[in-house]
Amino acid sequence: MSHYKIALLDGDGIGPEIMKEAVKVLNLVAERNNITFDLNHTPFGASAYFECGHPFPDATKQVCDEADAILKGPIGLSHEESQKIPVDMQPERGALLPLRRRYNTYANFRPVFLPPGLAHFSPLKKEIIGDGIDIMIIRELVGGLYFGEKETGTTAEGVRYVKETLEYDENQIRQIAIVAFNTAMKRKKVLHNIHKSNVLKSSVLWNEVMTEVGKDYPDVKVENILVDAAATYLCLNPGRFDVMVMENMFGDILSDQGGGILGSLGLMPSACLGDNKAYYEPSHGSAPDIAGKNIANPYSMIGSVAMMLEMSFGMDQESKNVWQAMQSVFADGYSTPDLSRPGSGVNMIDTQAFGDRVVEALRKMPIVA
Ligand code: NAD
Measured between alpha carbons, how far is 281 from 99 in angstroms, rounded to an integer? Predict the structure, then answer.
């Protein structure tokens, strides 16, 4: 009988609410497949700071070190609440970036997926969505501006300044390029390389390495697009994209735009892979505006579970079943409030009811050994 240890970092805001639904799905997956998941909840983020004095406590590090995979809820507070925490202890700087650095999770997969039958969720016109949206954004996750040297100070003239460095070396770019080309090979063999080489030298090196790696993948057609233009094309013609690869900050921003064109960030799960450890998280934040109301969409969290089943545990078929179970809830005409605006014809259900329906649908699906 397989046995997997999973560290559960509930996080802040809507984190614990959507984690609860993900756990229901994990428990059913274990039962259906006759395996055991050892689920260890452990504090992380602003809640950990208030509880233990640090947003990424040593005890959490130990649970994560020992885990076969990590499932993480969103972290963070509203802008105003964040001011209650010293700058370097605030959740992203004090917990999220250290988590990514600790496990060198350089490859972030962010699927942007909407079948044509759910086009009504999107703010885009039906004719723009066409055959649906199916993009895999691959974001470099441990380099660039977010991880570079930082300096703040005051000049001799008394002017406050800040300096942040955007650094990449060719090895960092090569490893994410290989991930992107391999992903393109498994899909439509088209890779959109997103850059800003007309301004940034980091993008000049990025593009050089992309071209070098591309020589090993002659079957993959590469299209190079400036990041600003890519933002426009995502709105005007998302169907032109299949696999997109980009550096850290571009990926942070464009993937949120991905959530926007789908209709909700609640539809954005993700996988963050390193060579020896992976963690899975919704792409979005802790949504303080809706926290505690049982109305958040748990798709992003349950989708992250589906990605974990496939990418960490090799349970490809059960992963597909979880995706299908979630899609069946939408197909039956139900969703959480983010996607069931008045007049949309979608029946509004809460977070818990969405999770229950996913579980109900999954329970009915045959288990293929
Ligand atoms: P956000 O992503 O939390 O929310 C943006 C909008 O999307 C809000 O209107 C929110 O209600 C909605 N939304 C997000 N997830 C949803 C879901 N599952 N269902 C329904 N609606 C959903 O962005 P924000 O408000 O700018 O940030 C809040 C906090 O989250 C900040 O502290 C930020 O630093 C943090 N953050 C954390 C992560 C992470 O943990 N990886 C990522 C992004 C932001």
Answer: 12
Q: Residue 60 — very low, low, confident or very high, per pLDDT cuts 50/70/90?
A: very high
Closest CA to 96 of 38, 50, 169, 147: 147
The tens digit of pLDDT for each residue in 293-335 reads 999 999 999 999 999 999 999 999 999 999 999 999 999 999 9
- Distances 332 to 264, 318, 325, 350, 354 between C-alpha atoms, Å: 19, 21, 11, 15, 11
Cβ(264)–Cβ(339) below 8 Å: yes
Nearest CA to ligand 1 atom 40: 74
pTM of the predicted model over 0.90: yes
Examine the residue annotation and report whether 316 is marked as an active-site residue of this protein.
no
C-alpha angle 66-71-72 in degrees, rounded to nearest 5 = 115
Q: Which among 278, 327, 310, 292 has a CA at the least distance from the CA of 134?
A: 327
- How far is the C-alpha of 99 from the C-alpha of 103, rounded, in Å? 6
Ligand 1 near 285 CB (within 6 A): yes
